[in-house]
Design a protein that fits this description.
8 helices, alpha/beta, 20% strand, 279 residues, binds pantoate, Rossmann fold, Pantoate--beta-alanine Ligase, Chain: A,domain 2, 3-stranded antiparallel sheet, 33% helix
């Protein structure tokens, strides 16, 4: 596995591999099975697999402690090599001093994480656009764990007509049901135990009796969440991420999304809900 730190060298690699399928999994490192499952999903769909590790300052609020984001470059490199990654891109000086562009997706960014973390998605779409320009992938893979991020990045790729296929990989859970996240490392044992209520609440909403309307389902789900603060639990249209009306059944593919806080740690989780069959 080749490690590239220089942005121009990475771009030259992309240019030299124009005729072959380049797969790309962008990450912020501290890799877990969720990340490696995305790499494993992309591996058979490409000739060259590139993974990036870059903790992007643009997607953190000034109040977030960027330096506190967990890092383990040696461990990450071992995990990438084990799943057959060809190039590990760990950019240094990723944004030039003259950088003055922001990529903004509207609509799907306005609610949920967009409302809770102003500027976050602009940071994500800007870094991913630049990464796409540098790596020049044929196919890029993102996790369903960050479901809104995936929706935003699909919209961006489609709207800008970027010639990149966007793949998504399913959310991966730990043995206790908690969605895998680099941030789980900050949970105390008690917080972790309480955080198990998140997936239980999601599954309860998904598996609620068919006769329940959405208002009943979300109320039941919210009551099950044990957290310091529930930012939101909602049933949304799987594509637009608009909340679905409380008094209706599920008629189109939907997603239950939840975000809750445990001390300073925000956890996100979600699950798909199939439309209720007509009686
Ligand atoms: O999901 C992440 O790890 C990041 O938001 C991403 C897509 C690598 C952009 O920095």
């Amino acid at each position: 596995m080749r490690i590239i730190r220089d942005v121009s060298e990475m771009q030259a690699f992309g240019q030299a591999h124009r005729g072959v399928r380049v797969g790309f999994v962008p990450t912020m490192g501290y890799l877990h099975r969720g990340h490696t499952s995305l790499m494993a999903l992309t591996r058979p769909r490409c000739d060259q697999l590139v993974v990036s590790i870059y903790v992007n300052p643009l997607q953190f609020a000034p109040t977030d402690d960027l330096t506190r984001y967990p890092r383990d470059l040696d461990g990450d490199a071992e995990k990438c090599a084990a799943v057959g990654v060809d190039v590990l891109f760990i950019p240094e000086g990723f944004y030039p001093a003259t950088f003055r562009t922001q990529v903004v997706v509207s609509g799907v960014t306005s609610r949920w994480e967009g409302a809770e973390r102003p500027g976050h998605f602009e940071g994500v779409t800007t870094v991913v656009s630049r990464l796409f320009g540098v790596v020049q992938p044929t196919v890029a893979c993102f996790g369903e764990k960050d479901y809104q991020q995936l929706t935003v990045l699909r919209s961006m790729t489609r709207d800008l007509a970027l010639p990149i296929e966007v793949l998504s990989g399913p959310l991966v859970r730990d043995t206790d049901g908690l969605a895998l996240s680099s941030r789980n490392v900050y949970l105390t044992a008690t917080q972790r135990e309480r955080a198990r209520s998140l997936h239980r609440a999601l599954f309860a909403v998904r598996d609620a009796p068919a006769a329940w309307n959405l208002g009943q389902r979300t109320a039941a789900g919210r009551a099950l969440v044990d957290s310091d603060r529930l930012d939101y639990l909602a049933i949304v249209d799987a594509d637009s991420l608009e909340p679905l009306p409380d008094d209706a059944p599920v008629t189109a593919p939907a997603r239950v999304i939840v975000t809750a806080r445990y001390g300073g740690v925000r956890l996100l989780d979600n699950v798909a809900v199939a439309p209720t069959p007509a009686l």
